[in-house]
Amino acid sequence: MHVAITNFLVHDNLTVNCKDKRNDLGVHTLKAEETYTFIFRPNLFFNVTLYFCRFVWIGVSHYFDIYRQDRDKCVEYHWDIFERGPCKIYPKNNECFLWNN
Prior knowledge:
Blueprint: E1 2-7, E2 14-19, E3 24-30, E4 35-39, E5 50-57, E6 60-68, E7 76-82, E8 85-89, E9 94-96
Parallel strand pairs: 1-7
Antiparallel strand pairs: 1-4, 2-3, 2-5, 5-6, 7-8, 8-9
């Protein structure tokens, strides 16, 4: 699986820290319209793979499940991050979500 996360905050840098239960992918700071990507292999036998990310900018901190194997069925995911929440980008439309917290 391939995940790409792009900062679409209006004026702020975005700090991203993604992890699953075994792997912390580290902290990454994105300027406006910069993208952070990572690749992983989901569980082949059970729909249990979960990657969640913490998104931080000035005075704000949110979490979101950036990949849930029971929800996400494609191989490649592009997420645009806005103040109101993350949006999954598809060729013909977008699907936006609320923050987990």
